[in-house]
Amino acid sequence: MIKIIARYLSLIFNPFLVLVFLPFVLVYRTTDNVETSIIWTIYTFIFFLVIAAFVLYNVKKGVFTDMDVSKRQQRPILFKFFFILGSIYLVGLFLFGGPEILLYIVVSIMLSIIVVSLLNKKIKLSLHVATLSALLSAVTVYYRGYSFFLLFLIPLIAWSRVKVKRHSVEETVVGAIVGSALSLSTYTILKMVIYNT
């Protein structure tokens, strides 16, 4: 029963599923405009579909073992693809005057890819936990107040990733630290350097 709960938690809080809804929530919070939120959510969703198609294609070709890209030696291919696609996404944000929050999220993700690529040589940190930590840190910064309680999801997801035997405790802890630290430092740097606040 515990393993089933862990499996469902791991599935529900898969980075792709969380990222599908998050742009709307964050863009609406910062713009107060439903139409803008929907447009940028659709824009973001197109990129997620491309990533999902890329992973699925490579699983079918045998390049990736599974949809989680669990094997450390397979991850550099995924990281390079993320980085290229993230760069294209950023160009679109600048060209079309995208919301500040999406700039913050994408820069955080791209910095995370660089750090995770370097760490991947030593440890297979949990991308689930790193992504969730980064996103929940962003939500907490922008929503403040009771959103702080969302951070309690991080250890819960870390537990689920260990329980389904995808990661060790060490890999989930490193993922949580890297995700949160990069998200918060990116927010601070963007606020100081770009927005002069």
Short note summarizing the structure:
The protein is built from eight helices and no strands.
Can you offer a commentary on this structure?
The chain has 197 residues and is mainly α. It has one domain (2-194). The chain contains eight helices and no strands. The termini are far apart.
Q: What structural keywords apply?
A:
single chain; 197 residues; mainly alpha; 8 helices
- Can you tell me the overall shape? globular
Please provide the count of β strands. 0
By secondary-structure content and strand pairing, the structural class works out as mainly alpha
Low-confidence stretches: none
List the helices and strands and how they pair.
Layout: H1 2-12, H2 15-31, H3 34-61, H4 75-95, H5 100-119, H6 127-143, H7 153-163, H8 169-194
Helix pairs in contact: 1-7, 2-3, 2-6, 3-4, 4-5, 5-6, 5-8, 6-7, 6-8, 7-8
